Amino acid sequence: MVSDWRVPEYLRSLRGRNFRLYFFGQSVSLLGSWIQQVALVWLVYRLTGSAALLGVTTFVSLAPQLFLGPLAGAWIDRQDKRRWLIGVQALLAVQALVLAVLTATGLIGPVMIIAMSFLLGVLGSFDAPLRHTLISAYVEDRADLPNALALNSMLVNGGRFFGPPIAGLLLGLTSEAACFALNALSFTALVFAVLRAEGKMPEPARGSVGHVFKEGARYVWDTWFVRILIGVVAAVNITASSYATLLPILAKDIFLGDAQTLGWLWGAAGAGAFLGTVVLVGTRSLPRLSQGVVGAVALSALALGVVASSTSLAPAFAGLAVLGFGITVCNAGINMLLQSCTPETLRGRVVAFFMATRFGFDAIGGLIGGLLAALLGVQATLWIEGAVLSVCLVFLFLHRQRLGAAIEH
């Protein structure tokens, strides 16, 4: 039932009580996750000063989603998604709490950081598809689904905007362990929301995990526009998204800053990302959204060059804001297109392929970026990534009209 809670038209999916609960539960959980992410990369660089280890840590925290994500999606489509989301959130809380204890007691080290990051990646392989596929279960009106997906993306990027500066402040006042403990507590918000909300859960898929996986993989490969959009996600995240791995190096070595500098740099990217989601919230035309994705790839390539050439904080802030905007419009826009155009019975698997590509290629990009930064320097690495993304842009620009037509039909 739709409530009479009055909201502006561009927030229309929040009129329903169930999605509103889910939305606010996720907002707290995602904010805690961003605080932990910033604290973890700062901990790695503070303890080791190694750009390569930053890349390795990012890789092991995201790579499981590349290899496990598609299979996790097939498995999830056969399960009670609500129950499993609660279980995964509980396990993520335990992971954050263990990380807090190890850090507070001084037992943390490179090997343990990598192990805990890998565990986070495995849990994330199930968490991300679960959270995204359940959005449709809590949206009463199917026409409001794109709006709900855009608002969900706004949450992610709102966390990216507010989380890093908060993390920088907390790191200055307390410690990394306190940030990890705060994240452990934040997972209870989403668990509470899921327990209170009343959603219409999709029917589980029938057949073995292998059969369900093959059915989803066949759809992704045989559907031209889905294949192209997944390819764009891979290109953007193996290049532009790796900036997150390089930010501690920029903050400490290029701009001679501290944890608060890192927080502000990350916050600049988050501000641009948040603006990108604001733009997406008002988008109704899917073919127009596909053209916006092409423009977002162009902005991302341009912004990499701006950040690479920056020798002071002001142009770096501007470049990171544009980069955050471009990456977000690309990733969130493609997620909206895929979920809006995919049959209900296949949505969980398509979302899993999207998430696997989004985070898996982010992991590969982070590893490559960290290794290249150790060999060539952080600024040269950003220039190379911008050049590679520009090649993808040329291909996408040449096929932009066919892409829009395919999505429209």
UniProtKB/TrEMBL annotation:
Keywords: Cell membrane, Membrane, Transmembrane, Transmembrane helix, Transport. GO terms for cellular component: plasma membrane. The keyword Disulfide bond does not apply. The chain crosses the membrane at residues 21-45, 51-76, 97-123, 166-195, 224-251, 263-281, 293-310, 316-338, 350-374, 380-398. It is a multi-pass membrane protein. InterPro entries: MFS_dom (IPR020846), MFS_trans_sf (IPR036259), TM_effector (IPR010290). One of its GO terms (molecular function) is transmembrane transporter activity. It comes from the Bacteria. Residues 223-409 form the Major facilitator superfamily (MFS) profile domain. The keyword Magnesium does not apply. It holds the Pfam family MFS_3. It is found in: Cell membrane. This is MFS transporter. It comes from Zoogloea oleivorans.
